Fold:
Amino acid sequence: MTIRLRSAAEDDLPFLNRLINDPESTGLHQWYGWQDPHRIRRRWEENGMLHDDGGLLLIADGDDRVGFMSWSKQVTSRVAYCWEMGIIVAPEFRGKGHGTRAQRLLVRYLFDHSPVNRVQATTEVSNMGEQRALEKAGFTREGVLRGVGFRAGEWHDGVMYAVIRADLDTRI
Structure:
């Protein structure tokens, strides 16, 4: 397994659309209803899905598209921000360690290319697979966020994980 992150190309757009708009592909914890099927193309045409406030990179294993990682800027104070990241792995690649490796790569990338001190991620309390992946990737569980996410007609509790720059040498 040689997981790498790469920028999106035009021929990746159908794959990305599948992971966002196909309930069978998004998985239980990522299905938020149908979305504008042209949104991905518009974002790609506008900026290649990379901009100062966040972005999206594909997870690849050789020639295989495995999933994608995204991140966005979260203001933490008047003079600081952190990155919040998310991941969707295609169903055929789940449970094989691809997500853990991709999360490590994105954390390293974000710390190498921005002055932030923190990268965070949230997931639903029932998403045990993602919690294990985050912990294996070096994240620390920080706490439960009650009623933070709305999905499938209900409010769900979330779990916040984070890694700070000082953790890099010991965990990432």
